[in-house]
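Sequence in, structure out. Go.
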Amino acid sequence: MAYTEKDVDIAIAKLTERIGAPIIRHFDGFIILAQSERDFEGKRNRIMRGDVFGFYTVERAKNIN
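Output:
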């Protein structure tokens, strides 16, 4: 599913408010919470290999209350 920039912005804002990790970015339909650039790259690589366990989808993050 393709998400709009607004969808991604809402998802990131909700996770920033709730969790506040140093790095919170969108990649391929998932929101990555990372402690450093190296951590982000490792998590991005996991998603690229198909290992998506433990990552928020944009849809799930948008619906956090």
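Check: Helices lie at 5-18, 37-48, 58-62. Strands lie at 23-27, 30-34, 56-57.
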